[in-house]
Amino acid sequence: MKAAYFDRHGGPDVLKYGDAPDPAAGPGEIVVDIHAASVNGADWKVRGGKFGAVAEFPYILGRDFSGIVGVVGENVTDPRVGDAVFAVCDVGQEGAYAEKIAIKAAIAARKPDTISHVDIAALALIGLTALVSVEDTLELRSGETILIQGGAGGWALETRHGTSGKDHSGRRRDRSVAGGFPGAG
Fold this sequence. Notes:
The chain is of the alpha+beta class. The chain has two domains: 2-110, Alpha-Beta Complex (Quinone Oxidoreductase, Chain A, domain 1), CATH 3.90.180.10; 117-179, no CATH class. The protein has helices at residues 41-47, 117-137, 154-163; strands at 2-6, 15-19, 29-37, 64-72, 84-88, 100-104, 109-110, 145-148, 164-166, 172-174, 176-179. The strands form four sheets. The chain has a five-stranded antiparallel sheet. Strands 1-2 form a two-stranded antiparallel sheet. It has a two-stranded parallel ribbon with strand order 8-11. A hairpin with an 8-residue loop joins strand 1 (2-6) and strand 2. The longest helix has 21 residues, at 117-137. The chain starts with a strand and ends in a 6-residue tail after the last strand. 30% of the residues are buried.
């Protein structure tokens, strides 16, 4: 497969595009044929060694992506080959700047038909960040209201989307979010 990778820390000039080994699905894993991957602020920091040295080179960046399941490993019943999915890699795993990636099947979510691969890949990490911030960190409960200061960035817009109306899976959300933009709850 082809991938964007680096074999030493440094600036943008260390990025290379070339061949990398195809990933294999282990037990409980799937291999996703990547259609879109998101570029995040942490990527340049990892490439530059700002988070410490990576474990081994060559290193393929990228944590959030969307694609089609190409292979399912042992004991995987969902998703199935051919399903459109998106995911954010587990902490400590990257590799979405490639044509394929092997991940735990349990962390893949079905891609809604109404959202493109590019759009859902761009929303995956900010969506997860918003969800964790509101539900786990703030422990926001039904009926509570929060103010999102500067509600124009990706985190704020996704937090508002994820806390009022329906989420990406179509489940009803009943939390109210007030923000400084039109239509805030």
